[in-house]
Specification:
The protein has 11 helices and 14 strands. The protein is an alpha/beta fold.
């Protein structure tokens, strides 16, 4: 899939296949969107705009709704209903139900078997497929990049634009290859890979870039692990994260509800096999980490860039040469009630937050 003999990256192949209008000096490109995921928090204003302007949803068949942000975690009551006690949440969920019904958008409602986290239902249902463009009003839409899809979060006004046109105005980002060479040691997981990457580049190190994760350690991850890595691309400042599809990807998708089947499946896989970056493709930037050097990672501060090996010591702010970073570190250690130079192994944990942004209902091996 070289273009005019020029090797292309995975990102370039997906981007080029979805251009409606090329980017000009003073105007962004118009990018076609294959799948638009919507939820109850970032969509109400977008739907209101459609009504005010007398517009319809351009492709309701390529739009999927799910209730996932204002949903309670309390158990079902005696009637089997999940009670929602927050008045604002009730209003958001009711409004979302009406909006999806009025505009003909399929929606997974609270309490139904298929309702779930917006980053999970796409892969789970086979809606997320290699080579697609996917957007959602949620920054962690980058999760879907684990399948070789160009996926990223958008703002509320952009949600309205995609609903009305099935396109999006976008400036073409740069590319960064993140190579993880070698095999992971026992006990080191996808979470440790991405925390190590962010600790290396900082929370703004990926600004203006799309990451492509490559290397033996990435290939050895399950799809859930790859989803975890891509999910947190945004925490490194990137627009999106991508992993080229391979046999692991195909095996995961095959047989799911919305996956191709029969001859269509064979044709799809043949097309997907052309997506990985061509040999000789040039990235705007590359970094390399060695899997042998990676150990279980923890964060000691207030952002994902404040990460360290579990056997390490908390950094000392006075040793930080960057004044702004020193101040941020000082504040973080006060907030976390940690001491400079302290080792955290053996320290009691007082509060635990369990997040399942990428592996709810799927697995816990990430």
């Amino acid at each position: 899939m070289t273009e005019n003999g020029k090797p292309r990256t995975l990102f370039e192949k997906v981007w080029d296949a979805h251009i409606v209008r090329e980017q000009a000096e003073d105007t962004p490109a118009v990018l076609y969107i294959d799948l638009h995921l919507v939820h109850e928090v970032t969509s109400p204003q977008a739907f209101s705009t459609l009504r005010e302007r007398g517009l319809t949803v351009r492709r309701p068949d390529q739009t999927i709704g799910t209730m996932d942000h204002s949903t309670p975690t309390t158990p079902r009551n005696a009637e089997g209903i999940i009670p929602v006690v927050d008045a604002m949440a009730v209003k958001q969920l009711d409004t979302f139900t009406k909006n999806c019904a009025d505009f003909g958008i399929p929606m997974y409602a609270l309490g139904t078997e298929d309702q779930g986290i917006v980053h999970v239902i796409g892969p789970e249902k086979g809606l997320t497929q290699p080579g697609m463009t996917i957007v959602c009003g949620d920054s962690h839409t980058s999760t879907h990049g684990a399948f070789g899809a160009l996926a990223f979060g958008i703002g509320t006004s952009e949600v309205g634009h995609v609903l009305a046109t099935q396109t999006l105005l976008q400036n073409k980002p740069k590319t960064m290859a993140i190579n993880i060479d070698g095999k992971l040691s026992e006990g080191v997981t996808a979470k440790d890979i991405i925390l190590a990457v962010i600790a290396k580049i900082g929370i703004g190190g990926g600004t203006g870039y799309v990451f492509e994760y490559r290397g033996e350690a990435i290939r050895g991850l399950s799809m859930e692990g790859r989803m975890t890595v891509c999910n947190m691309s945004i925490e490194g400042g990137a627009r999106a994260g991508l992993i080229a599809p391979d046999e692991t990807t195909f095996e995961y998708i095959k047989g799911r509800k919305h996956a191709p089947s029969g001859a269509d499946w064979d044709a799809a896989v043949e097309k997907w096999r052309q997506l990985p970056s061509d040999e000789g493709a040039v990235y705007d930037k590359e970094i390399t980490l060695h899997a042998d050097d990676l150990v279980p990672m923890i964060t000691y501060g207030t952002n994902p860039g404040m990460g360290m090996p579990i056997v390490g010591n908390v950094p000392v702010p006075d040793e930080e040469s960057d004044y702004n970073k020193k101040i941020a570190l000082d504040k973080a250690l006060v907030y976390m009630d940690l001491k400079p130079g302290q080792q955290l192994i053996g320290k009691a944990i007082d509060v635990v937050f369990i997040g399942s942004c990428t592996n709810s209902r799927i697995t816990c091996d990430t």
